[in-house]
Design brief:
Blueprint lengths: L1 H21 L4 H7 L6 H11 L3 H9 L3 H9 L1 H28 L4 H13 L1 H13 L16
Helix pairs in contact: 1-3, 1-6, 1-7, 3-6, 5-6, 6-7, 6-8, 7-8
Length: 150
Amino acid sequence: MTRQLFDLTFLTAAPFWALMILAPRWHRTRTIVASPLICMPPLLIYAVLVLPRIGTFWHTLVNPNLPALQAMLGGSAGAAVAWAHFVAFDLFLGRWIYFDSRARGIHPVPISVLLLFTILFAPLGALGYLLIRSLRTPRSVPEQPTLAEA
């Protein structure tokens, strides 16, 4: 089951990445990715994978050390849990980049390239976006959805 969940994880996020990267100006993209609940499928996969092993993960994460973390992540369960974690939070980050860049009037082409990079190397994508973002001021009316819309 671990392998199937690993294989399924990115597939649950890929449609939302595709919309933000390939169709950033399509009117339905904003509507579809407006809800942070788009991150729910990989988060649920994470929960299914980690909850049966919560004791092991808890012990390792509360008292982190490199050998213990290597041992935990070195197996198929640990790798699948880490992958679900990456996919869920990378999508959440990508969603924020998408809406924040639109609110700042940043052209979607460089943002699409940056989002593609963020899928693979999220911390570097976030760093790149924060650098780009520091060069722009927000528009007077942000396009980011409000909590009531989400």
